[in-house]
TrEMBL record, chain A:
Record GO biological process: quaternary ammonium group transport
Species of the source: Azospirillum doebereinerae
Family the entry assigns: Belongs to the ABC transporter superfamily.
SUPFAM superfamilies: CBS-domain pair, P-loop containing nucleoside triphosphate hydrolases
Entry protein name: ABC transporter ATP-binding protein
TrEMBL record, chain B:
Designated name of the protein: ABC transporter permease
Annotated compartments: Cell membrane
Record's keyword annotation contains Ion transport: no
Similarity comment: Belongs to the binding-protein-dependent transport system permease family.
Length: 313, 394
């Protein structure tokens, strides 16, 4: 979908991105992570030509983006930033309609699309359609920001620390909604963050940046079990490594195929660290598991949580 | 103070004292056998003796009582109404009494406003403005009240009730000149506004985009603002006269409307350029960044995003520019540009105070009306969107 080949970008004497090659697959959720100044935002902003690389090439769906008009490229990609940047003089509806209007969609289609998106992001269309941005909370503003980015059904969604400024509860809710949107639409997502928990929760693949270089590109499980060097190890953190390790696997992956036991069944799609937390709360070492259809799907044993195929750092 | 104040509204008390003092101690009208002699003072009491004259006492009494009332909405609304009616009534009463005085005097006799009239008029209007502020009326409501006062006085004027006042006798003598001057005044202001906008808005955009342009433009415009208008008119005379000699037949001249429009334009530039730049500066970076990321072209960002967001600040610059230009255009009469200033200066040189008023009063009304209309426009531009939030516009 997106292919970086030996891309370098300098700002004066400072090299923000240094000889990076990276491929983002169709429908993939790729998280770029790194400390501030690692070049992750620069890399993201080169994908829609907000920043132009010095050398190397970037291809989107096979086309070198240097050959495209930047505006045309950007209208094909959704873009969400940390500071949201809603247009304060436009209603929520007009904000969401930004790109469809630029593309000249017919009015009725724009209106239907806005309604659809407001519902998708859990904003009541009757209440929010005609509201102005200053009337919304921070979380509601970023919901509109995400809806605006999705409006023209982009194949790629670029997100630059979109949830970093939100409180933990709102952030968790929006992460869940984003994961669902990604699952349902199959949109390719490139997501920048400095929060490893967020990366582990959302990513299909994590790309770790440090001082402009790509240090490791791997699945969340590999990042945890085979970190490529101290930079990655520091980002993961040593203190609650075990909980993070549990968070990248689901209950279904460790449940034993046994007849179910009494008690409220636990969803098999939930991450393991939540199951552990649930066991502590219930004071038990076994949980009945159910699948998405609510059917019994075995039993999760505490012993299996600590005996899993783990390699500690 | 913990105990309830004896006088809840001190501003209204001060104005009421002025009203009372002017009513008793200062002449309401001056009556002279002709326009050059100074008049015999006529007290308000004499004018009140007219049929219906006592009706003025009613709003007057409200204004005198207002300082002692608890400032409820009803009391404040009564103060607004009383101020408006008293101001309009005062003008009407002056007209009526002038007519009675003129009935048994020679046609050359003049009844002009006395100092008491002006003090009472000012006190009534200020009391009205103070009460409107305390009521928290919006710009549109304040404009409506102002228009109501102006409308009442205009009715008296159209009905001929004010014809025997000296200022209207001056008007009757110069009917054509006055209409001409009024029109010329407006044309001067608008003729300066057009080049100001054509030059000032792009210059403001450039100054905001490039720090170098800003460093170049603002010091120059700031210095220009400090040059007294008379001096600037004078400074323009010599080069324009030289240009006229060089290019005869293009209507260029060292005196007249051309240097006046140039000088007005130069003065008008600073508020327009500055407020255009300040308005654009106020657009949050995140908004600009999002607009670019969404795929807007630079032109679309300027026209659809930056311009509407900068509009309230720009309009307050336009307000400063227009009010300033209306006043400065009066001075332009000195270099033969015409306009209401020419009537004022005629009056000054002839020592005819009412002729000065005939020029000055419309200039004041012109400026006040411009200010009020633009204030309403700014309120409309910011109302629904809540933008800009918590930022005062220069």
């Amino acid at each position: 979908m997106i292919a970086f080949e030996r891309v370098t970008k300098r700002f004066g004497s400072w090299t923000a991105v240094n000889d990076v090659s990276l491929t983002v697959g169709e429908g993939e959720f790729l998280v770029l992570i790194g400390s501030s100044g690692s070049g992750k935002s620069t890399l993201l902003r080169m994908m829609n030509r907000l920043i132009v690389p010095e050398s190397g090439s970037i291809r989107v769906e096979g086309t070198d983006i240097a050959a495209l008009r930047p505006e045309e490229l950007r209208r094909r990609m959704g873009y969400v930033i940390q500071s949201v940047g809603l247009f304060p003089h436009w209603t929520v509806e007009r904000n969401i309609a930004t790109v469809p209007v630029l593309l000249g969609w017919p009015k009725a289609r724009v209106r239907d699309r806005v309604t659809e998106l407001l519902e998708l992001l859990n904003l009541d269309p009757r209440r929010f359609r005609s509201a102005y941005p200053h009337q919304l909370s921070g979380g509601q503003q970023q919901r509109v920001g995400v809806a605006r980015a999705l409006a023209a059904e982009p194949r790629v969604l670029l997100m630059d620390e979109p949830f970093s400024a939100l409180d933990p509860i709102t952030r968790g809710a929006l992460q869940g909604e984003l994961a669902a949107i990604h699952r349902d639409t199959g949109t390719t997502v490139v997501f920048v963050t400095h929060d490893m928990d967020e990366a582990l929760t959302l990513a299909d693949r994590i790309a770790v940046m440090d001082h402009g270089r790509l240090v490791q590109t791997a699945t969340p499980l590999e990042i945890l079990t085979h970190p490529a060097g101290d930079v990655v190890r520091d980002l993961v953190g040593r203190e609650d490594w075990g909980l993070k390790r549990l968070s990248v696997e689901t209950v279904g992956q460790r449940a034993r195929p046994e007849p179910t036991i009494p008690g409220a069944p636990f969803p098999s799609a939930a991450p393991l660290h939540r199951a552990l937390s649930e066991m502590v709360a219930r004071g038990t070492d076994r949980l009945p598991v159910m699948d998405e259809g609510g059917r019994p799907a075995g039993v999760l044993h505490l012993a299996d949580l600590v005996r899993g195929p783990a390699t500690s750092p | 103070m913990t105990a309830p104040a004896l006088v809840p509204n001190r501003v209204a008390l001060l104005l009421a004292l002025f009203l009372l003092g002017a009513a008793f101690a200062l002449p309401f009208l001056g009556f002279a056998p002709n326009r050059l002699l100074s008049g015999k003072p006529i007290p308000l009491a004499a004018a009140l003796a007219a049929p219906w004259g006592w009706a003025l006492l009613l709003p007057g009494a409200v204004l005198l009582a207002a300082p002692f009332l608890r400032p409820s909405r009803a009391a404040l609304a009564a103060s607004v109404a009383a101020g408006a009616l008293f101001a309009a009534g005062l003008v009407g009463l002056a007209g009526e009494h002038a007519a009675r005085l003129a009935a048994d005097a020679s046609p050359a006799a003049r009844a002009s406003f006395g100092s008491g009239f002006w003090v009472m008029l000012a006190a009534a209007l200020l009391a009205m403005a103070d009460a409107m502020r305390r009521l928290g009326l919006g710009a549109a409501a304040r404009l409506a009240v102002g228009a109501a006062v102006a409308g009442l006085i205009a009715l008296e004027l159209v009905a001929g009730r004010l014809d025997q006042l000296s200022i209207l006798k001056e008007y009757a003598n110069r009917r054509d000149v006055f209409a001409d001057a009024l029109l010329r005044h407006g044309v001067l202001v608008l003729a300066a506004l057009l080049p100001t906008l054509l030059v000032g808005v792009p210059l403001g955009v450039l100054a905001q985009r490039s720090a170098r342009v800003g460093r170049l433009v603002f010091p120059v415009l700031n210095i220009v603002q400090t040059i007294p208008s008379i001096a600037l008119f004078g400074l323009l005379m010599a080069p324009l006269a030289a240009l006229a000699a060089l290019l005869p037949g293009y209507g260029i001249s060292g005196v007249g409307p051309v240097p006046a429009v140039i000088a007005l334009t130069v003065y008008s530039l600073l508020p327009i350029v500055r407020n255009t730049a300040v308005g654009l500066d106020g657009v949050p970076d995140s908004v600009r960044q999002a607009a670019r990321g969404m795929g807007m072209t630079p032109r679309q960002i300027l026209l659809r995003v930056e311009a509407p967001l900068a509009l309230p600040v720009f309009l307050s610059g336009l307000r400063i520019t227009l009010v300033q230009a209306v006043g400065l255009a009066a001075v332009a009469a000195l270099i033969g540009a015409g306009g209401l200033g020419s009537i004022m200066f005629q009056g000054l040189f002839a020592n005819a105070l009412d002729l000065v008023l005939l020029g000055a009063v419309p200039v004041i009304l012109f400026a006040v009306a411009t200010d009020a209309l633009l204030t309403v426009a700014i309120a409309l531009a910011t109302r629904s969107t809540g933008w800009p939030t918590g930022r005062s516009a220069v």
